[in-house]
Amino acid sequence: TCWYYKFGTVVLSEVPIVLYCSDEVHTKLKPQVDSISNDFQKHSTQEDNVQNTIFVGNLPNKTTLKDVKKLFGIFGPILNARLRGAVRKELKTPKKLAIIKREFHEDSNHINAYVKFKSFESCKSALIMNGELYEKHHLRVTLAEDEGKSDPKKSIFVGNLVFKIHDDDLWQAFEDCGPIDRIRIIRDQKTGIGKGFGYVNFKSTDAVELALKLDGIPILGRNVRVSRVTNDGRANPSVKKKKLKKIFSSDETKQKGKKVEKQIKPFRTKVKHEFQGQKTKPSIQKKAKKKKRFDKKKMVIKQIAEQMMSKRK
After folding, report:
1. What CA–CA distance (Å, rounded) separates 215 from 213?
2. Which of 24, 115, 31, 20 is nearest to 77 (CA)?
3. Could you name the domain of life of the organism this protein comes from (predicted)?
4. What sign does the CA torsion over 41, 42, 47, 53 have?
5. Less crowded by CB within 10 Å, the N or C end of the chain?
6. How many Å is the maximal CA-CA distance in the chain?
7. Which residues contact residue 242 at a Cβ distance below 8 angstroms, ignoring those fewer than 6 apart?
8. Among 126, 146, 166, where does a domain finish?
9. pLDDT in tens, the chain (313 residues)
10. Structural domains counted in the chain
11. Contact status, residue 224 vs residue 160, Cβ threshold 8 Å
12. What residues contact residue 130 under an 8 Å CB cut-off, 6+ apart?
């Protein structure tokens, strides 16, 4: 026979406590029960925070909670709103305090918000604000639970960005390719400064094909890298490698390669002999060897003749 710890209305049936167990056993099991309870409560809190909540990105950093509620209050009753993602002027300053005091980094011009509605219908209606221009900022509005999700087939990876780049800089660079769904610049969690790369999510795959042609264009003085995105949300450099492999394996390229090789071959031969120094002709080398042998033989004969003359005397 056993019983179970009960927390509120939740019964933790996976951690039974035997009725006749000693205090020592009870003490050992209690931390396990408390741990499960804390995990459950944490999970429940996270679900409550995400439910009926939208994420609003790229708001001007001068935006207040009053402005946020006024902007999204037309879609239905708002339970609460929170400002997040502030790029602080000083890292020592807590983020919440930086928002209250409006102490932001000079290179930052944005802030994010979470808006929790009373109903899911209001939450869904507010998504129409995604991509809308507010105070010269293109807003990124998604469900809080879908904040980082996107279709890789409709996305491009943009690398080699300047660290102080803003969402609207990328928007301006790629808006001619087609309708943009959202832009996400990857930033450092502590500082909020960009890491030098980001993603542009379009509303169609045709826009992606056009955007890939902009590989190497300058944005704020740096030539950026543009490539496809894999299913796991990363850059796909293999696409470019496959294209290069296809180009160099074609018959036309092989024929051109042979022609170039014929043109280069004589030049290579000349260069090869230019740095080998001056070589003596083989015929001259043979004559020099013969001369040395003849001189040596002559000296030996002379020595023998001198010895014979000395004996006769």
Report:
1. 5
2. 115
3. Eukaryota
4. positive
5. C
6. 143
7. none
8. 146
9. 444 444 444 444 444 444 444 455 455 555 554 554 455 444 444 445 678 999 999 999 899 999 999 999 999 999 999 999 888 888 888 888 888 888 888 888 899 999 999 999 999 999 999 999 999 999 999 999 887 678 899 999 999 999 999 999 999 999 999 999 999 999 888 888 889 999 999 999 999 999 999 999 999 999 999 999 987 666 665 544 444 444 444 555 455 445 445 544 544 444 444 444 555 556 666 556 555 566 666 776 777 777 777 766 5
10. 2
11. yes
12. 139, 140, 141, 142, 181, 182
Q: Tokens in use for 27?
A: 């003490």
- Whether 161 and 219 map to the same domain: the answer is yes
In a shared domain, residues 63 and 83: yes
Whether 129 and 86 map to the same domain: the answer is yes
Q: Which of the 8 DSSP states describes residue 195?
A: E
| CA–CA dist 208, 201 (Å, integer) | 9
Token pair for residue 152? 């890789």
| 12 located within any domain | no
Structure tokens at 285: 């080398």
| 91 and 134 fall within a common domain | yes
State whether the Cα torsion 257-258-263-269 is positive or negative.
Answer: positive
The CATH number of residue 197's host domain is: 3.30.70.330
Helix (H) or strand (E) holding 135: none
pTM assigned to the model = 0.59
Evaluate whether residue 25 is within a structural domain. no
Q: Which residues pair with 134 in a beta bridge?
A: 137
Q: Where a domain ends, among 207, 228, 249?
A: 228
Strands 140-143 and 218-219: unpaired
Q: Do residues 171 and 183 lie in contact, with contact meaning Cβ atoms separated by under 8 Å?
A: yes
Residue 6 CB: number of other CB atoms within 10 A? 11
Amino acid at 292: K
Nearest to 83 by CA among 106, 110, 105: 110
Q: CB–CB of 159/225 below 8 Å?
A: yes
**167 shares its domain with 188:** yes
Domain assignment present for residue 101? The answer is: yes
